[in-house]
Amino acid sequence: MSDIVRIGNGQGFWGDDIDAPVRLAAGGRIDFLTLDYLAEVTMSILAKQRARDADAGYARDFVDVVTQLADVWREQPNLVVIANAGGLNPQGCAYACIERLRSAGLTGMRVGVVTGDDLMPSMDRFIADGHNFSNLETFELIDFVRDRLVTANAYIGAEPIVEAISQGANLIITGRVADPSMTVAPAAARFGWSADDHQRLAGATVAGHLIECGTQVTGGIFTHWDEIPDPANIGYPIVEVDDDGNCVVTKPDGTGGCVTSETVKEQLVYELGDPAAYLSPDVTVDFTTLTAEEVGHDRVAVRGATGRPPPDTYKVSATYHDGYRATGTLTLVAPRASELGIRCGEIVQERVRRAGYHLEEFSVECIETFTLMSPPVKSEDDAGEVTLRMTAKDPRRAAIERFTKEIVPLVTTGPQGITGYAAGRPKVQEVFAYWPTLIERRLIQPDVRVVEVGS
Amino acid sequence: MSASSSEHTIRLGEIAHARSGDKGDSANIGVLAYTDAGYTWLQQQVTAERVKAYFDHLGPSKVDRYELPNLGALNFVLHDVLDGGGSRSSRVDAQGKTLGRIILDMRIPAPDEVESMRRKSDA
What we know:
heterodimer, A: 2 domains
C-alpha cells in the first residue's frame, strides 16, 4: 500500500460545531487538521469588528479552539493545524494564539502566518493603474461601489501553506485562501509535489472540495438523511490522500453519519459550475473523469480527476456596504391565511410610507406552518396557518428602523388569529453585498512568516 | 411530450437524488441517478428548458446543463435565482439550499423500466 497522508476537516464554516475540531484531532488519527472560518461575506463582519478595535478582525472563537487543542498537541506533537481563521488580521490572530500556546506551556512550537491576500491597502493604486475589477456576474465596474467597498481579498493557493509546513509550523493561520488549498498543501508538502504536477494537484483539490464543508460528505444534508445512524454524533470527514492525488474519504470510528458513494457524489456536485473546469488557484480540475467507489464500510475511493494549469488570475471576493435591512415575522391562523398575510404586509409597507419612507425593497413570504393547528387544513373554509416573513431593505437606516416599529402593532390592528410577536421588534442589520472579481496573479505576493512560541 | 406519456409520470426523486448550493446570485443543483439506465433517462428527459420552466417562480435568467456520465449526474446552474444571493438576498432560502429537495418532486415521463432505475435499497 502506498504512503498516505490523513487530512481531516473539523469546521465547515464559522458557526459550525465548536467541539468538532478537538474531537476530530483527538480521535481521528489525522496528520493534518483543516478548519474553515470564512464564508463569502464573513470578511465584512470581521471588517466591522476591526473598525471598532484595530486588534480584532479575525475569528476569535478559533483562539479558544487553539487552547482546547493544546492537550492534543502534547499527545500528538506532529499534528499540523491549518485554519483560515486569520480573516483580515492573520498576524493579530497569530499573536493571540501564541499567547494561549505559551500559557499552555507549548514553548518551541512553531506558528506560521500566511498574508498577502488583502487587496484593500493597495486598492487605490490598482485602480489608478487601470484595473477595473469588473463584477464577474454583473460586469459592472468597481467605480460603481468603490466608495462603499469594505473588503477585497484574493483566494490564494497552497504554495505559501506548503512553505509554512516545510518550515516546521504546527499551526498555520491564513487569511483568505481557496478552501481546497488547505487540503492540497499538506499532500503537496508530504509528497514533494511541484506546482506543475497538475494531475496530482487535481486529485488533492477534489479531496479538499469533498471535506471543506465538514459533515456534508458524512451524511449531513444527504437526500436520505433520515437513514443515517446517530446524527447527533455525526463524524467529521477525513481524506487519505496518496502520492497520486487519489483519496479515500472516511470518518473516525465510533462516530455517527455515514460515508457512502451517494453521500460522496452529492458533495462532489455541491456548488459545482462547469464540471470540466473547476477553477482553483492551484489547478483547473476536470470532474468528468473521476470515479467514486465504495471500498469498505464508511470508505469511498475517489480517483481519476484530471488537471491542467490554473488561470493566470486569482479570484477576488470583495464586499461593499449595501444599506440596511430588517426581517420580522408574525404567525397567522385564518382561512385564506396567505392572502391575509400578504394584506398585513401591505399595511406595514403603507404605514412606513405614511411615515415618510418609500422603502427601496420590501418583500413578504408566507411560509405555511402547522405548528399550532392539529390536524392541518382539511378544506379551504378551514383556517390555515402561515408564518409571515417580512423583509425591508433601504439605504437609509431610519427607514428600516421605522419598518421595525410597524410590525408588532398588527397584533392588535391585524386579522383575528395573528400572533408570534414575542421576540419584539427585529434588529436593523447592515447589509454587505458580494462583489466577485479577478486580479492578475503577478500582482499578488503571498507572504509566509514562521515564528516560535517563546517561553 | 405526447399526451399519453404525460399521463404516466414519475417523481424525479424515484430514480435520482440531489444536492443544491450557491455561487453568488446563481444556484446549482446536482441530480444524481441511482442507476446507469436512470442516468440515460435523466439525460433524455431533464433538459435545461424543463428545469428552467419548473423553477420559473424564481425567475432564472438562464439555466445551463452539464453532464457527468462518470457519476451518473447532471449539473444545472440556475442564473439569477437568489434575489441577489448570500447576504444580500431577502429570501428565507438565500442560498438555494432547498432547491435540491424541490427538484426531486418534478414530474418526468415514466420510463417503461422504472423499477430497475430505483435506488437499490428501495427496489
